Amino acid sequence: MFVQLDNCIMLKAVCRDPPAVTSAILRSLGLNNYDIRSFWYTAKRKVRDKSYTLTVFRHRDVSFKVELEVRTGSSCFTPPTSFIDRFDCQELQSTKLITNLNMLYVYVKGYIDDELFIKVNGVYLLRKLVDLGEGNTVHSIRIITKKLLSKSFKFNDLVHVNNLVNTMLRFNQELRELIIYVPKSSADFLRLIPLLISGVQNV
Question: Whole-prediction pTM value?
Fold first, then answer.
């Protein structure tokens, strides 16, 4: 996702619905052909089995989840690793259409009583934060993500959690239209974010 975010910024693309991962992006991260085939096999199986959904916010009957979708199709491409959606493809020059691609999409979905009420592309959300001048918040999200994935979240990393809380408070009015309740402190924030609870318990 962060590779694609950098691509969106470089191309000045809106990135409403780009894939988060393609084989070319995986290759740029150092994976070989065997690793890439294994990645797609695992991703497709987990998505098929619905075993890769992460709840990132929960308050009463409102929850937000990160969910993955794997598709095989076409995407506009700009070397070396930029894959953009069809809307940006119509606006940007020097792109070419690549077909028969494996693409993984990351979405943030909001639910009320388990009923979907909003679905937003994860790369687009990061892009909007940058557009709003929240580059520091995106940096904190990047660090927290890496720390949680590597199970190396430490007490000192709570400063990045505080950055997220401050961002939510700055957009309190807008967020209340979506998530009903906006955390008012780092401790409150941690209570509502299941992933961070597990990370802090390991500190």
Answer: 0.86
pLDDT score recorded for residue 195:
63
d(CA 148, CA 142): 10
Give phi and psi for 84, each to the nearest 5: -115, 165
Residue 107: name the closest of 84, 88, 126 by CA: 126
Q: Which two tokens stand for residue 129?
A: 């934060």
What percentage of the chain carries pLDDT values higher than 70? 94
**Residue 156 carries which DSSP code?**
G
Q: What band does 59 get if pLDDT is binned at 50, 70 and 90?
A: confident
Q: CA of 28: how far to CAs of 88, 93, 106, 122, 148, in Å?
A: 22, 23, 19, 20, 22
Contact between 16 and 124 (Cβ < 8 Å): yes
CA atoms within 13 A on the CB side of 92: 23
Quick one: pLDDT at residue 92? 86
In this structure, are residues 14 and 87 in contact, taking their beta carbons and an 8 Å threshold? Answer: yes
DSSP structure class, residue 152? -
The answer to whether 78 and 93 are in contact (CB under 8 A) is no
